[in-house]
What does this fold into?
Amino acid sequence: MEKIPNKGPALIVYYHAAIPIDYYYFLANVIIQKGRTCHSVADHFIFKIPGFKLLLEVFSVIHGPQEECVRALKNGDLLGISPGGVREALFSDETYPLLWGKRRGFAQVAIDSQVPVIPMFTQNVREGFRSLGTLRLFRWLYERFRFPFAPVYGGFPVKFRTFLGDPIPYDPDLNAAELAERVQQAVQSLIDEHQKIPGSILRALLERFHTKHKEH
It folds into this structure.
């Protein structure tokens, strides 16, 4: 948590699990340890769920227009975003591929706000909950209709460890594409360092009983 500034803005960029329970814990830790609120960017469909509007407002969730993100950061707030979003949540798997495509909006937000970017990854987060999105039918439904439905199973009491990388400082010489690539490499480095591939539910369960990190 020492990577998170005690005051001032920063953009936290994280790998999106099938259910991002690690990110919820992270938000709680920011409040408890830093006394700060972290705004979050969520997919548009979340805002269409009946009864969710008030909950989203309480947790400072925004639906992500770049102008609104820049405004939050220029106000001195923290902001969390996952470039992989729903696609990564549903269609990544226990080999932990980053499914960011050519998304660069988050990088442009960091450039326009002139803030550092902090990469984040949680070990074993795919072993806590698994998605059946790799089945062809669910991928087809999403790509054809943007229907974000794929069954998720799990709730396994595996050992999670969240790692924050070194902040990537604002660099006026970097454009959005270059910064996006650098951030993706930083998140990938956290995965390479801390996650044994492919992920194993049994191994992740056993890690609750010892503190051994990834074996190289």
